[in-house]
Automatic annotation (TrEMBL):
Signal peptide: none annotated. InterPro entries: Amidase, Amidase_dom, AS_sf. Coiled coil: none annotated. GO terms for molecular function: catalytic activity. This is Amidase. NCBIfam families: PRK07486.1. Residues 38-470 form the Amidase domain. Pfam families: Amidase. Gene3D superfamilies: Amidase signature (AS) domain.
């Protein structure tokens, strides 16, 4: 019979299972109140029901093999072996990094059908922790751009309004979490790839400090410090649950932190927030163009910090944001071209690259050593600027995006509030400050704009203050309630998107 009609026994009904938060699901599995088979069946049924409307999960694996894994995990529990908080969890690793035995296309026809022989470190840890990989979450080509579409699997659509973009590059992950097709999800973030889709789909996405979570293996393990792996979830305890599995030192990646032992990350206990200083960056004194209504929606979230007892003040770093942007695109193009230059050099693969990828590669190849050193100096000066700012405030807050979710048929916004965007990623400039400073940044739901579309804020902490950012993020979530607003697609009577 179809998965949606498969009986799910035990103490929970199928729809009830997918509505549980990840912490509760993990406890139910650990105490054997819920079986791994029941969990798998419930989430596969949810995927069958909703994924055709949004295309978040791609490259699904055969059901029989998944059921065999779930039965084996149940047998381990019966013998008294519990692998940890992800035991029996359905997961769909992002289609950017390798996952053993699964197709890894990176959203490119160049790699369509390519099966990976090994796992990325985070996938290795998730799998060892008992996760069942049921397919991949969709991503744009090479993860480039904040809109999840590619010629291999097509477009992923927004969880709240399927005519709009899901964001990217972890767009499939965000939609799957928002629509209860996954309890939590992995993602990665170089230029907002966790933060943009989290904001667009009313969930939480956490750009971790570099070195907290191993991101690789990679060909180059010393200079690359922009792209990080991290978790996505519907609330902060769930986010911390996945991060606890992902985080920790790995000798294959020498810049990971020895102070972080695998499996040891935990959400700090509640605290008194009275007197904590919040610096509101807003649109950085007009340097970031914003779609009408977005800045007002995001600034409305400040009231929740004030209700917690925080002191909110407007701040503006004494720094030329355009100078920071130029340094950023130089360092980004250097990184992208280094990893993909061979694809542009070969005529056969070059013809399959999307224009934005080719632009990045060619731009990176033209950069000189002195240009790169100057960009690194600018990045260092920006870090020092924010370090000094954190002597006056405890956390910084600004919008996670500069637009609401846009039409899914577009490639990228060409203008914001009358200001032309001069590149395919200029519309995402708001995420650059945290990336360039190497600071932890949590994308948190900020409510809904005039057209009912989701918006998000970034909560940014001082260097390596990941736990503190999640701690205040949890208090904000409890105060605001924004993340508990459900997608209309979750209503059983909602007709399929046509």
């Amino acid at each position: 019979m179809p998965l949606s009609q498969t009986p799910v026994g035990g103490a929970f009904a199928g729809r009830d299972i997918v509505e549980l938060d990840a912490v509760s699901l993990s406890q139910a599995i650990a105490t054997r109140a819920l079986s791994c088979v029941e969990l798998l069946q419930a989430f596969l049924a949810q995927i069958e029901r909703l994924n055709p409307q949004v295309n978040a999960i791609v490259a699904p694996l055969p059901t029989e093999g998944l059921l065999a894994q779930a039965r084996a995990l149940d047998a381990e529990l019966a013998r008294g072996r519990w692998r940890g908080p992800l035991h029996g969890f359905v997961q769909a690793p992002k289609d950017i990094m390798p996952a053993a035995g699964m197709v890894t296309t990176r959203g490119s026809p160049i790699f369509a059908g390519q099966v990976s022989a090994s796992d990325a470190v985070v996938f290795e840890r998730m799998r060892a922790g008992g996760a069942v990989f049921i397919g991949r979450s969709n991503s744009p080509e090479f993860g480039l751009g904040g809109h999840t579409y590619n010629p291999v699997y097509g477009t992923t659509r927004n969880a709240f309004e399927p005519t709009r973009t899901a964001g990217g590059s972890s767009g499939g992950a965000a939609v799957a979490v928002a629509l209860r097709m996954l309890p939590v999800a992995d993602g990665s973030d170089m230029m907002g790839s966790l933060r943009t889709p989290a904001a667009f789909n009313n969930v939480y996405g956490f750009r971790t400090s570099f070195g907290l979570v191993p991101h690789g293996p990679a060909e180059e393990v010393f200079a690359q410090q922009f792209s990080v792996a991290g978790p996505m979830a519907r609330n902060i305890p769930d986010l911390a649950l996945l991060l606890g599995v992902q985080a920790g030192f790995d000798a294959r990646l020498p810049l990971t932190r020895r102070s972080e032992a695998p499996g040891r990350f935990a959400l700090p206990p509640p605290r008194d927030w009275r007197g904590v200083r919040i610096g509101w960056l807003g649109d950085l004194n007009g340097q970031l163009p914003m779609e009408a209504g977005l800045l007002q929606t995001c600034s409305g979230a400040l009231a929740h910090f004030e209700a917690m007892g925080c002191q909110v003040q407007a701040v503006t770093p004494a720094f030329d944001l355009e100078r920071l942007w130029r340094a950023w695109i130089d360092l980004r193009s250097f990184s992208v071209s280094g990893a993909n230059a061979a694809l542009a050099a070969d005529a056969a693969t070059r013809a399959l690259l999307k224009p934005e990828a080719l632009w990045e590669i060619e731009r990176g190849l033209k950069l000189t050593g002195p240009q790169l050193y100057e960009a690194m100096k600018v990045r260092s000066a920006w870090y020092q600027c924010l370090r000094e700012l954190f002597e006056r405030v405890d956390f910084l807050v600004l919008p996670a995006t500069q637009v609401f979710p846009f039409d899914a048929g577009l490639d990228w916004p060409r203008a914001i509030d009358g200001r032309e965007m001069d590149s395919y990623h200029r519309w995402m400039q708001a995420v650059v400050p945290a990336t360039m400073a190497g600071l932890p940044a949590l994308a948190a739901p900020a409510g809904f704009g005039p057209q009912g579309l989701p918006a998000g804020i970034q909560i940014i902490g001082p260097v390596q203050a990941d736990a503190a950012v999640l701690q205040i993020g949890h208090a904000y979530d409890q105060a605001s309630g924004h993340s508990r607003v459900r997608s209309p697609l979750l209503t059983p009577s909602t007709p399929p998107f046509a």
